[in-house]
């Protein structure tokens, strides 16, 4: 076979393989775009676990009619313009590939009205085939509609699970988001019925999460047993909540870690936490926590994976030790209490 250049739609479908695993990944990418656009409220309407429909509407800055085609073009982004920007990036997105990827594997519509403009417009894409920009009334902000996910990629569609399961993945992701952004209102509906409302709690205060948000997201038991963590040093800040050892889990299902506001998985930090709990938890039990690590964006590379689930730290060892020491100190009183009980 001779070497040939692949058509754009196929390139986007290949990229979609990395970014769009299931409906929850679409919700993630679209809500992150809404947050990057400064939205205060995001409406999330779903049908059939998001497979039939995902509609995300925000009240953010919006997109100009003439920029709609750019928004769905590959490697087109308003978030970075240079390597230097990339290295200090603070937005959730920057790769410019979510919208074109999603649009290539669904029936897709993007409607928007840009802040300060009085005309709205819409652009439809059907399985990668791009339509014409059409005028459309729209409040300030953006609506993205994704119908029939993977309708043109049967191999992918086959791997979608039952409606309940897909909805569960979406809800879990929204919980993760609600913990990080209590300042934004999120309203969710499924099959026409409102299912969840995360109320916006005003400005994101420095202290972070309210008790209400914590118990809404993780349950009252967690909230009752949570210790506050707040520690800064070496230009690092770790804050959030960790559960007393008496509240522990069979699995790692309540371990939320955010690096500069982005939910990530990190083995080194997970290890540091585990180590801090090592002598106060029974073997095989898992700690529960919501932790936010803040540091200069230049000390962390977020461009490790297309879906950005992982990051790479410039000084991983230092960060590991910082987290370990902070949590070890936070658990010191508990540890002393346990020792006293044991000797009594
Ligand atoms: P990225 O987020 O990496 O820039 P995307 O493909 O997700 O790439 O989006 C492409 C561009 O479209 C964004 O850079 C942004 O300018 C615009 N855009 C996408 N969604 C929204 C939205 N909800 N509100 C405003 N602009 C948006
Ligand atoms: Mg994006």
Automatic annotation (TrEMBL):
One of its GO terms (cellular component) is mismatch repair complex. Residues 214-332 form the DNA mismatch repair protein S5 domain. The keyword DNA repair applies. Keywords: DNA damage, DNA repair. GO terms for biological process: mismatch repair. One of its GO terms (molecular function) is ATP binding. This protein is involved in the repair of mismatches in DNA. It is required for dam-dependent methyl-directed DNA mismatch repair. May act as a 'molecular matchmaker', a protein that promotes the formation of a stable complex between two or more DNA-binding proteins in an ATP-dependent manner without itself being part of a final effector complex. Belongs to the DNA mismatch repair MutL/HexB family. This is DNA mismatch repair protein MutL.
């Amino acid at each position: 076979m001779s070497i040939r250049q692949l058509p754009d739609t196929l390139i986007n479908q290949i990229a979609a393989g990395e970014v769009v695993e299931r409906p929850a990944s679409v919700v993630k990418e679209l809500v992150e775009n809404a947050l990057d656009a400064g939205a205060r409220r995001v409406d999330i309407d779903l049908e059939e676990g998001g497979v039939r429909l995902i509609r995300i509407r925000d009240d953010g800055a919006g997109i100009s009619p003439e920029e709609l085609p750019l928004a769905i073009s590959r490697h087109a982004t308003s978030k970075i313009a240079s390597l230097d920007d990339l290295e200090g990036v603070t937005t959730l997105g920057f790769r410019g590939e979510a919208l074109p990827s999603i649009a290539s594997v669904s029936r897709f519509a993007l409607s928007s009205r840009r802040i300060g403009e009085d005309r709205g417009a819409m652009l439809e894409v059907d399985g990668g085939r791009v339509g014409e920009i059409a005028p459309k009334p729209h409040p300030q902000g953006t609506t993205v509609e994704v119908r029939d996910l993977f309708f043109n990629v049967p191999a992918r569609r086959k791997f979608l699970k039952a409606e309940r399961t897909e909805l569960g993945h979406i809800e879990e992701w929204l919980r993760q988001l609600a913990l990080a952004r209590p300042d934004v209102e999120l309203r969710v509906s499924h099959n026409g019925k409102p299912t969840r409302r995360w109320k916006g709690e005003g400005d994101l205060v420095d202290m972070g999460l309210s008790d209400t948000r914590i118990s809404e997201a993780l349950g009252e038991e967690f909230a009752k047993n949570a210790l506050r963590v707040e520690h800064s040093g070496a230009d690092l800040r770790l804050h959030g909540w960790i559960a007393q050892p008496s509240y522990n889990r069979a699995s790692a299902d309540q371990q939320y870690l955010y690096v500069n506001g982005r939910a990530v998985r990190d083995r080194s930090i997970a290890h540091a936490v585990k180590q801090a709990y090592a002598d106060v938890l029974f073997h095989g039990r898992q700690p529960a926590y919501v932790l936010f690590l803040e540091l200069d964006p230049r000390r962390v590379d977020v461009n490790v994976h297309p879906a950005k689930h992982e990051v790479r730290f410039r000084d991983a060892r230092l960060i590991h030790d910082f987290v370990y020491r902070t949590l070890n100190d936070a658990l010191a009183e508990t540890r002393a209490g346990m020792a006293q009980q044991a000797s009594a």
